[in-house]
Design a protein that fits this description.
mainly alpha, Cytochrome Bc1 Complex, Chain D, domain 2, 5 helices, 0% strand, globular, disordered C terminus
């Protein structure tokens, strides 16, 4: 009986984890993907913001642990500020400052999507075009 109960609990945790990831990706696709593509586009003429692999590479280079990285993402999305930007200076010059997403995303959605982004980007082996130049 204990084995069955343990298996059921483990199964529900796995399903919950998969559901959370799926929900995170759905939120990303609806709220973030219009500006931040999941991969580097082949047609750079339509790019309006850096692709998420590069963004997350910089987040993880600047914040040594997940809690700090998530805190930064949540803060920056709602209150972008050039002083706390971690973009390479040429990216900030090219794309400008991200507009605040207040009113465009709820705190609950932001909590889910920021965790999904953190867990999935950058992909293993990713190397940004600048390879870290211009980092603060």
């Amino acid at each position: 009986m204990k084995k069955i109960l343990s298996s059921l609990i483990l199964s529900s945790l796995v399903v919950s984890s998969v559901s959370a990831m799926s929900e995170g990706e759905k939120i990303y696709d609806a709220k973030c993907l219009p500006c931040h593509t999941k991969t580097r586009p082949s047609d750079m003429s339509q790019v309006v913001a850096p692709a998420i692999p590069g963004v997350m590479r910089h987040v993880k280079m600047n914040f040594s642990n997940e809690a700090d990285g998530l805190k930064f993402i949540r803060s920056y999305v709602m209150n972008p500020d050039e002083k706390k930007s971690i973009c390479m200076p040429e990216k900030l010059k090219k794309f400008g400052l991200m507009p605040s997403q207040k009113g465009a995303i709820t705190q609950a959605e932001l909590d889910i999507v920021s965790k999904w982004i953190y867990d999935n980007y950058p992909p293993k082996g990713f190397r940004g075009r600048g390879h870290g130049r211009g980092m603060r």
